[in-house]
Design brief:
The chain is α+β, with helices and mostly antiparallel strands and 137 residues long. The protein has 2 helices and 7 strands.
């Protein structure tokens, strides 16, 4: 699973407004020739990210190379059911990456356009956010 090393404070505030989390470094293809770009905003859980990463690794094998541009570094906490108010913040439930529309999630190179479209279609089914294929200029 993709989770960061536990630091001093591992319980973060819940990321509500994704528009304030603009990351301008993640909006263009840098490493590869093709990229998977998010069309809508949402949360990408670490389990979803791991599924996408494993799928890309298996499908590309030795044909091409891929880069994962994101990492889940926000915690989502929850308290157990039927627990009274107070007692502090709940335990860490899962890790997410808040995806803003226009963020490049994955990049890959040494593949053709047909293979890139196949990867897009299969990753679209596994991802909770809509994706589109972009090419490096």
């Amino acid at each position: 699973m993709f989770i960061p090393n536990p630091g001093k404070f591992n319980k973060t505030f819940r990321p509500r407004n994704l528009q304030k989390l603009a990351n301008f470094k993640l909006n263009r293809v840098v490493f590869g020739t093709y990229g998977l770009k998010a069309v809508e905003s949402g949360w990408l859980k670490s389990a979803n990210l791991e599924t996408l990463r494993k799928y890309l690794g298996k499908s590309l094998k030795k044909e091409g190379k891929f880069w994962c541009r994101i990492f889940p570094n926000w915690t989502i906490t929850s308290k157990p059911l039927e627990v009274r108010m107070g007692g502090g913040k709940g335990s860490v439930d899962f890790w997410v990456f808040p995806v803003k529309a226009g963020t490049i999630l994955f990049e890959f190179s040494d593949v053709g356009l047909r293979k890139a479209n196949e990867l897009l279609n299969d990753c679209q089914n596994k991802s909770p956010v809509s994706l589109k294929l972009v090419k490096r200029f």
